Amino acid sequence: MPHTIRSFDCSRHSFVDNSKQALADYLQLGYHIEPNVFSQEECDTLIQAAHTLEDAKNHIFRPNMMPHKQHTVFLTAMKAPFIVKTISTLISGEAVGLQSEFFYCKPGTRGFSLHQDNFYVEANYGVFVSAWIALTDTYAEKGGLIIYPMSHETGALPTKKLNIGVDQLQDPNANNEETIVPEKYVRHAIGIKKGSVLFIHGHLVHGSHTNSTDEWRYVLLCTYIRSGEEFRAGRYAKREMVQIK
Fold it and tell me: Which of 36, 122, 215, 242 could be a cystine partner for 97, CB 3.0 to 4.6 Å?
């Protein structure tokens, strides 16, 4: 049963009023949670737009790859000035967009196995960051995230192949392999409030729980890289640079 009391996390410092300390914490921990980046209305607009995409209209609710190419509201979110400014600070240079993905996470959707985002992108260390935008309140039972703070510091970690089959509601690459996490890193389940953004270092190990509630867990993921850096386009994602200024 879901918890009756839900707690939500945010970082000690905000990029709004203490960018220097927020950056220092991010570099140490490998992540940053910024509250109130998107309003309730903006979140609801993104959810409504996601249900107009072709797969959703056909009642197919696997994650939608590159929605910013299908509806301008997602491109606008990717270009959100606060996100772009924060990403540029995190990567110490001009940011360009790389990928977007909308997660419906219908009740029963299996969680995403532990991974490092840069496993798929193969960029240089420290130049690739993901912005995980919570469009609903998320917590462990509702497909909330699992993170291993400071696990980014080691760089690329080994993986092991999984053999658990495909969940038609999940990204096709979600459960192919799993990152092997050194014992010194501690697993944390985090709750993220609607409208908050989790900024994820490309090498931070993270995953998600299965959504065991009767509610949908909507998330827009946007990823960014420092301008001029090389990356893997990918056969499924087909990543390409997006000018966001």
Answer: 242
